[in-house]
């Protein structure tokens, strides 16, 4: 007789949510005074995205948000994390807010609250106003100050009703996929500029957090969402350990060092000294960046597996961040990435929930007492409706069960994890992959824009309603 299975049960206060971002779902790119962001420009540049896809319509959330919020409520979600389009609120990245742009987010927040769903706002999810990029973008210091002004505008408009805030989403992607490997907007391949961008994103976070606190109730929570990486080595050879140190500094320490501890890792500065002297880090910057946080958001998909590169094969070849002749890891050309073992998602990312557990325990040690949220976790699969129009995705259910079990194990081990936001609420524009990769728990027919909850949405709904993970089929 088989052993009885102990249910995986979460604390009653645990938040069950889903995440999206503005450019990936909103559409309506020319309505209400919105001007182009770097992703409008990038996606309309031939050869930049799969199939030449773009977010002009995306899944039309701008017009269909009442339907989408009703669907969230039907699924029993506690919380919804969305981003604000900077170009919709402040079209040139400067000056006063466009009220019609803010009004969309006011309506969205009101709709969420009327259904008992907690809104969580991310101020920046990669869509810099094109005019700011034309002025130099994130490698320019002024962009951080423009971000602080924008943060204040949104905080003033929504801070009375939104308690959960994130300044930036995955600044690593903004800096290194946008300015080093060029696979994300704005598509630049300038290693030193990518390091400058990273610093100015850090500065934007600190200035933005300060701006939010100046206009919002003290009860509100201010966080940042980092795609921190669990970096592993193929061996304990000193050369492989040194390779892992480089990648850990570039993936993690370059952001959590200043944000949590007020300093960049010395090993990072040493590894990149041939690219930059870091003279753009001005006196007082680290104090500005090192603002107290109320929580930390962590985005996790897969671990990294690295070694020292041999003479015949240098540079990243399996880091999972898109094909480019240019590396997103400045100063780490002597590091080789390897495909982690095990099953993979459609993105080619290995499925390894232990990496999420390890990440949560690392930040429990790194920032003791700081509440943690999983602000993104999910998987892309080749989902298709059956003849009856149903979308069955057992692989995603297994993925979610494994990773949520890892979260619960981390809580048992002492991690203060307060909530989980699945990526993503629905299928959408997946950046340079266009509409080829489906991460949603809700299937979107891109021809009709009809929404259909997948079987994983029903499974997740059961978890959200009961606080206990349903069995995997």
Automatic annotation (TrEMBL):
<dbReference type="InterPro" id="IPR017853">
    <property type="entry name" value="GH"/>
</dbReference>
<dbReference type="InterPro" id="IPR001360">
    <property type="entry name" value="Glyco_hydro_1"/>
</dbReference>
<feature type="binding site">
    <location>
        <position position="423"/>
    </location>
    <ligand>
        <name>substrate</name>
    </ligand>
</feature>
<dbReference type="InterPro" id="IPR017736">
    <property type="entry name" value="Glyco_hydro_1_beta-glucosidase"/>
</dbReference>
<keyword id="KW-0119">Carbohydrate metabolism</keyword>
<dbReference type="GO" id="GO:0030245">
    <property type="term" value="P:cellulose catabolic process"/>
</dbReference>
<dbReference type="GO" id="GO:0005829">
    <property type="term" value="C:cytosol"/>
</dbReference>
<feature type="binding site">
    <location>
        <position position="301"/>
    </location>
    <ligand>
        <name>substrate</name>
    </ligand>
</feature>
<dbReference type="InterPro" id="IPR033132">
    <property type="entry name" value="GH_1_N_CS"/>
</dbReference>
<feature type="active site" description="Proton donor">
    <location>
        <position position="170"/>
    </location>
</feature>
<keyword id="KW-0326">Glycosidase</keyword>
<feature type="active site" description="Nucleophile">
    <location>
        <position position="376"/>
    </location>
</feature>
<dbReference type="Pfam" id="PF00232">
    <property type="entry name" value="Glyco_hydro_1"/>
</dbReference>
<feature type="binding site">
    <location>
        <position position="125"/>
    </location>
    <ligand>
        <name>substrate</name>
    </ligand>
</feature>
<dbReference type="InterPro" id="IPR018120">
    <property type="entry name" value="Glyco_hydro_1_AS"/>
</dbReference>
<feature type="binding site">
    <location>
        <begin position="430"/>
        <end position="431"/>
    </location>
    <ligand>
        <name>substrate</name>
    </ligand>
</feature>
<dbReference type="GO" id="GO:0008422">
    <property type="term" value="F:beta-glucosidase activity"/>
</dbReference>
<keyword id="KW-0624">Polysaccharide degradation</keyword>
<feature type="binding site">
    <location>
        <position position="169"/>
    </location>
    <ligand>
        <name>substrate</name>
    </ligand>
</feature>
<keyword id="KW-0136">Cellulose degradation</keyword>
<keyword id="KW-0378">Hydrolase</keyword>
<feature type="binding site">
    <location>
        <position position="24"/>
    </location>
    <ligand>
        <name>substrate</name>
    </ligand>
</feature>
<protein>
    <recommendedName>
        <fullName>Beta-glucosidase</fullName>
        <ecNumber>3.2.1.21</ecNumber>
    </recommendedName>
</protein>
<comment type="similarity">
    <text>Belongs to the glycosyl hydrolase 1 family.</text>
</comment>
């Amino acid at each position: 007789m088989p052993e009885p299975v102990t249910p995986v049960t979460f604390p009653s206060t645990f938040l069950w949510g889903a995440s999206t971002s503005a450019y990936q779902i909103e559409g309506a790119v020319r309505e209400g005074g919105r001007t182009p962001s770097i992703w409008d420009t990038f996606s309309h540049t031939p050869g930049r995205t799969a199939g030449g896809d773009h977010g002009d319509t995306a899944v039309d959330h701008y017009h269909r948000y009442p339907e989408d919020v009703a669907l969230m409520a039907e699924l029993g979600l506690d919380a919804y994390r969305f981003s604000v389009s900077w170009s919709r609120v402040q079209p040139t990245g400067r000056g006063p807010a466009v009220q019609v742009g803010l009004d969309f987010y006011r309506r969205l927040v009101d709709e969420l609250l009327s259904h008992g769903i907690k809104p969580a706002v991310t101020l920046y999810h990669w869509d810099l106003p094109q005019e700011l990029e034309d002025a130099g973008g994130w490698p320019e210091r002024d962009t951080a100050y423009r971000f602080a002004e924008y943060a204040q505008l949104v905080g003033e408009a929504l801070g009375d009703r939104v308690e959960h805030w994130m300044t930036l989403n995955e600044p690593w992607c903004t800096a290194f996929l946008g300015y080093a490997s060029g696979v994300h907007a704005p598509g630049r391949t300038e290693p030193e500029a990518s390091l400058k961008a990273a610093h100015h994103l850090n500065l934007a976070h600190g200035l933005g957090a300060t701006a939010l606190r100046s206009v919002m109730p003290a009860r509100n929570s201010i966080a940042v969402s980092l795609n921190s990486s669990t970096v592993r080595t193929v061996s304990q050879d000193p050369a492989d350990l040194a390779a892992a140190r480089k990648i850990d500094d570039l993936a993690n320490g370059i952001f959590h060092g200043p944000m949590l501890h007020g300093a960049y890792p010395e090993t990072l500065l040493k590894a990149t000294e041939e690219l930059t002297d870091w003279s753009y880090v001005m006196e007082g910057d680290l104090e500005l960046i090192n603002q107290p946080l109320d929580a930390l958001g962590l985005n996790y998909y897969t671990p990294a597996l690295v070694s020292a590169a041999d003479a015949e094969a240098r540079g990243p070849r399996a880091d999972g961040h898109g094909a480019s002749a240019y590396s997103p890891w400045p100063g780490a050309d002597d590091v080789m990435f390897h495909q982690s073992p095990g099953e993979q998602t459609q993105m080619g990312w290995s499925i390894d929930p232990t990496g999420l557990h390890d990440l949560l325990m690392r930040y429990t040690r790194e920032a003791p007492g700081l509440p943690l949220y999983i602000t993104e976790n999910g998987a892309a699969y080749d989902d298709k409706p059956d003849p009856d129009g149903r979308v069955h995705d057992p692989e995603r259910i297994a993925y979610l069960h494994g990773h949520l079990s890892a979260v619960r194990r981390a809580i048992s081990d002492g991690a203060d994890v307060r909530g989980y936001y699945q990526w993503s609420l629905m299928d959408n524009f997946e950046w340079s992959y266009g509409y080829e990769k489906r991460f949603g728990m809700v299937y979107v027919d891109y021809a009709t824009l009809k929404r259909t909850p997948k079987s994983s949405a029903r499974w997740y709904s059961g978890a959200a309603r009961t606080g206990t993970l349903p069995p995997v089929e």
